[in-house]
Amino acid sequence: MTSTFQKHQRRQGKAISVRTKLRQVSGRPRMSVFRSLANISVQIVDDLRGHTLASASSLEKDVRTAIKGLRKTDVAKKVGSLVAERAKRAGVAKVAFDRGAYKYHGRVKALADAAREAGLEF
User: In 10 A of CB 29, how many CB atoms?
Assistant: First the structure.
């Protein structure tokens, strides 16, 4: 049996691997996704300066009221379009998509597709 610590280390290793590949490819800001069982959040981070340029989450008050009764993938779509809108306001048009240790599938894919539709390039 694997311990919780080993699972955590394996997950962190996957996320670091994805991030390393992103750094090699582009000097763009990184769009980092975090997915929990109930919520999803995303940040656009400038790694060179160490600043968050834009963010959105399903935990925000105004988003919570808009997503009541929706499925998790629909919530991810709303969050994706919201972060794209906020990124445009911050002057960011191109990002590098950081899925972390999550598969590009389901809610993560829905968020990415919605952000693309709203005008972000990656």
Answer: 26
Select from 39, 52, 30 the least CA-distant residue to 78.
Answer: 39
The residue extents of the domains of the chain are: 4-117
Dihedral of CA 42/7/22/99: which sign? negative
Q: pTM (2 decimals)?
A: 0.88
Describe the chain by its helix, strand, coil percentages, rounded to 5.
Answer: 45, 20, 35
pLDDT per residue as tens digits for the range 26-65: 778 999 999 999 999 999 999 889 999 999 999 999 999 9
38 — phi, psi (to 5°)?
A: -105, -25
Classify domain 4-117 by CATH architecture: 2-Layer Sandwich (3.30)
